[in-house]
Design brief:
There is one protein chain. The protein has helices at residues 2-21, 23-30, 63-71, 92-97, 111-117, 136-142, 155-166, 169-189, 217-224, 273-276, 285-288, 304-318, and strands at residues 39-42, 48-51, 58-60, 76-81, 101-105, 121-125, 145-148, 196-200, 208-212, 228-229, 246-250, 261-264, 292-294. It is α/β, with parallel strands linked by helices. It has two domains: 39-170, Rossmann fold; 188-318, Rossmann fold (3-Layer(aba) Sandwich). The model is unreliable at 1-33 (pLDDT under 50). The chain has twelve helices and 13 strands. α1 (2-21) packs across α2 and α8 runs parallel beside α12. The strands form four sheets. A five-stranded parallel β-sheet has the order 5-4-3-6-7, sandwiched between helices. The chain has a four-stranded parallel β-sheet with strand order 10-8-12-13. Strands 1-2 form a two-stranded antiparallel ribbon.
Length: 320
């Protein structure tokens, strides 16, 4: 009986200690349970994000990235918009149909709005007018946050990265495969003009005029459709710290281009007149041949939706 009482007393002492009376209990309580990790993501800023589960509520702080998230059917519930508080026109109707909330315009991150959305994953662009990098630390307190660079890569490359981060790899691969088939079918219909083709974001005198390289998203897309892209002279670059997919050329250097066909970004056919009537550009081969075309009002950013618009428009212009 004494042995039994000693055993009972021993259990009582251990129980009291476990309830918080002694040092061993304090040590046990302070050991936090390890957080589950569904997968990790290597960010564009060199950091790594642990994502605990497949996200169901994504906040995209970058309007330039949101279109690709929508293209792979990721569960975007809210997104930043452009400086005019608008979504990009090429996918705005998709966002509306899916109930995506416009949380703030580019450059005006609202942390209260981020909390209100209750995201389980936040997406940030590492650079650009829609980057939220200054608020990265605060946003990471709201939810796991990943950082991507949408600059020097195609929407397909971005889609694959986002697919892995969101568990939508299959959707990304299917979207890319369907688009590549669309391009192949379009190329079979398109009769590209003879000679070289260039792509210009025309801003006029006193400003940089970005010219797309062959390796840019624009150059790759038109190259895949059979156009032979003129490579701009790298020595013309006036914005050396920026992306390498465009050469920011001084206005006066545009007159040195030799392509027989020019496509202008961000304008339709009606928007080409300023370029066609510019006296400094009157001797350009494309101007003399009246082979200057608008690539489309939504062509400033190549995502799945704008790329699809471009493909369809080029079939109409240069198809049978």
């Amino acid at each position: 009986m004494k042995q039994r009482n000693g055993w009972v007393i021993g259990l009582l002492v251990l129980g009291l200690a476990a309830c918080g009376g002694g040092k061993p209990a304090a040590s046990t309580d302070s050991a936090a349970a390890p957080t589950a990790v569904w997968r990790t993501f290597d960010n564009a800023d060199g950091t790594r994000t642990e994502i605990p589960a497949s996200p169901t509520r994504i906040l995209s702080t970058s309007v330039a990235i949101t279109g690709t998230l929508l293209a792979i059917d990721a569960p975007v519930v809210a997104s930043g918009s452009n400086a005019k508080h608008q979504f990009f026109a090429q996918w705005a109707s998709v966002a509306q149909a899916r109930g995506v909330e416009d949380v703030w315009p580019a450059g005006s991150v609202n942390l209260e709005a981020a909390y209100a959305v209750k995201p389980d994953l936040i997406v940030i662009a590492v650079s650009g007018a829609d980057s939220a990098m200054p608020q990265l630390a605060e946003l990471r307190k709201v939810a796991p946050t990943i950082v991507l660079d949408y600059g020097d890569q195609t929407w397909q490359d971005l889609a694959l990265k986002l697919g892995r981060a969101t568990g939508h790899e299959a959707q990304a691969e299917a979207r890319i495969a369907a688009f590549e088939e669309r391009v192949a079918q379009a190329r079979a219909k398109i009769k590209a003009p003879a000679g070289k083709t260039n792509l210009i974001s025309f801003n006029g005198a006193g400003m940089g005029n970005p010219i797309a390289t062959r390796e840019s998203a624009h150059g790759r897309l038109l190259g895949a459709l059979g156009f032979d892209i003129e490579e701009p002279d790298p020595s013309w670059q006036t914005n050396a710290g920026q992306r390498k997919d465009f050469i920011w050329a001084p206005y006066e250097n545009l007159g040195k281009l030799t392509a027989q066909t020019t496509f202008l970004l961000s304008v339709d056919e009606a928007g080409t007149q300023k370029f066609l009537t510019d006296p400094v550009l009157a001797n350009l081969p494309s101007v003399r041949a009246q082979q200057v075309h608008g690539l489309g009002k939504n062509s400033f950013r190549i995502d799945y939706y704008s790329a699809s618009e471009i493909v369809d428009d080029l079939v109409r212009k240069f198809g049978p």
